[in-house]
Write a structure and sequence with these properties.
Length: 384
């Protein structure tokens, strides 16, 4: 078995309290060992964070290629880096969350996502596209699991069982895909490329803006409170800017809203989440500004040229995975500073108790407060 202690999170945020693996990875591999050996050519892995599941499974399936989906680009990069570090001969193919990922799969290993919508989209896809005798083995930390996860799986599978906890991790096993699951879902459906009904992504109209969201996208098809606060501030004092970056774009609300209000602008909506980028692209198209909003999956805008933006819009996350941690916000502040031209502005909204102003001053430049409430603060930082 691979040496889990050698795994790193790089290029994701690294800190002593942030680990690259946990007991769930080991429990999934131990439990699914027999199934992996029995069906080595039909294995799919979803949600592998930094490579533990993929590299561990590869030792059991030998030369057979694994199909892998990691929502975060940092996860894909970490998997490749860890494989090289360990000298692994693992063979895998990174795929989007679509039928090609699970078609005909007999074994699906899943690190449970935090949100029920993300789990619903995954379970619906597996039930519709995998082999009729597929076994979905999903694991998570007990403190993050809820009975509602069982309910989500039961919408798509005839049999769902929970295993005993081990080292504060637990597994849910689902089998017997239900052919009626997609048809009974409450939201409007769209046809997949294989002709099977899918209920994802889902959309909601907010005035002239149509927000489209895949299951793993933050806030779904609603507009979160922090983004609303930033939009309100921009409506009052927005600068003139034709080259704009929505950094960590989520569903693309900020990008599409700016494009709606500024017909001359070109906006790049960038996020490391595949679900976010797909949602942002669909939001821009549904809102009618798809020709002026470019959606790009990237690690903190690394592929964009330095000094290429006159304005950066940012609503940074305050957690890394399930851990509350400021590391990702600071990484995005540094990215914004790199992307902005001298004199360009970063408009940022953040949880008021986090006190990011001094970090913004150091990293970007002079920073002023535009608005402040009990929950959120909006600031403008000018690039030195």
């Amino acid at each position: 078995m691979i040496d889990f202690e050698q795994l790193r999170r790089w290029p994701d945020v690294e800190a002593p309290e942030l680990v690259a693996h946990d007991a769930t990875d080991r429990l999934l591999l131990d439990t699914a060992r027999e199934a992996l050996v029995a069906h080595p050519e039909r294995v799919t892995i979803i949600g592998d964070r930094y490579g533990a599941l993929t590299l561990g499974a590869a030792e059991l399936v030998g030369p057979h290629e694994l199909r892998v989906h990691q929502d975060a680009l940092s996860g894909e990069l970490a998997l490749a880096a860890n494989a090289e570090r360990l000298g692994s001969s693992a063979s895998w193919r990174s795929l989007p969350l679509d039928p090609s990922l699970v078609e005909g799969a007999r074994v699906v290993l899943l690190q449970l996502p935090r949100g029920l919508d993300a789990l619903d989209e995954i379970a619906e896809l597996v039930a519709a596209q995998a082999h009729p005798e597929v076994q979905l083995v999903a694991g998570g930390r007990v403190k993050h699991m809820t009975p509602a996860m069982n309910d989500v799986l039961r919408r798509h599978f005839g049999t769902v069982s929970a295993g005993l906890a081990r080292q504060k991790s637990r597994l849910l096993t689902a089998s017997g895909p239900r052919s009626d699951a997609g048809a009974t879902a409450s939201s409007a459906a769209s046809a997949s490329s294989a002709g099977t009904t899918s209920t994802w992504p889902r959309s909601e109209r907010h005035g002239d803006l149509v927000v489209v969201a895949h299951g793993a996208a933050f806030a779904g098809s609603s507009i979160d409170v922090g983004t609303r606060a930033l939009l309100e501030a921009l409506a009052v004092g927005a600068p003139e800017a034709s080259r704009v970056v929505d950094l960590g774009c989520g569903t693309g609300v900020l990008a599409a809203s700016w494009a709606l209000a500024h017909p001359e602008a070109h906006v790049v909506a960038t996020d490391q989440s595949a679900a976010a980028v797909a949602s942002a692209r669909a939001t821009a198209d549904a809102t009618g500004v798809g020709d002026r909003v470019e959606s790009r999956r990237d690690d903190a805008g690394a592929s964009l040229p330095a000094g290429s933006a006159g304005l950066v819009l940012l609503n940074p996350p305050f957690h890394v995975g399930a851990t509350v941690h400021a590391g990702l916000a600071h990484k995005l502040f540094a990215a914004a500073a790199r992307l902005l031209e001298p004199g360009g502005e970063l408009w940022c909204v953040w949880n008021s108790h986090l006190g990011y102003r001094s970090a913004l001053e150091r990293t970007v430049g002079p920073t002023r407060q535009v608005s402040r409430g009990p929950k959120f603060t909006v600031t403008v930082s000018t690039r030195r």
